[in-house]
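User: I'm putting together notes for a lab meeting next week and I want to include a structural view of one of the chains we've been expressing. I don't have a solved structure, so I'd like a prediction I can at least talk through. The sequence is below, exactly as it appears in our construct file.
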Amino acid sequence: MFYTIVHLSTVIVLFLSALTHYYWVLKPDAEPSSKVIPYIEGVPAFHASKLGTFLVASALLLVTLFVMELGAGIIGLLPTYILKIGGTLLAAVFIVRAIGDFRLVGFTKKIKDSTFAYYDTRYWSPLCALIGLSLLYITWGS
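Assistant: Thanks for the context. Below is the predicted structure for the 142-residue chain, given as structure tokens.
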């Protein structure tokens, strides 16, 4: 039962994250928010292009489908060892994102006095850590 709750919750969070990124692609006045993009001295640290955001959204959608297969084996196209390796690698990606780059993002960020840093510390990094740990549980807990 707990496994099912963790699996379903992870799939929902990943899917909603993908939908949010697709929304940003379709949003006509797509000005990057300081809540989701790190700023350095009032300037975005990077430019979030429509194409880049679309690719992130599509990757998140593929990850969602992979996690559905990982936890429920609905389609059965991928062998177990691919699911285990993929699940472990995805967990590592999310955990590394949560840990951060020692500068702008993650728990180890040095720039801590921005709107992004506030949201990253309280929401984005813990969410990534939780997704990473959930993926490890989904991959190896059954």
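A couple of points you could mention at the meeting. The longest strand covers residues 39-40. Residues 7 and 71 are 6 Å apart (CA to CA).

User: Perfect, that's what I needed.
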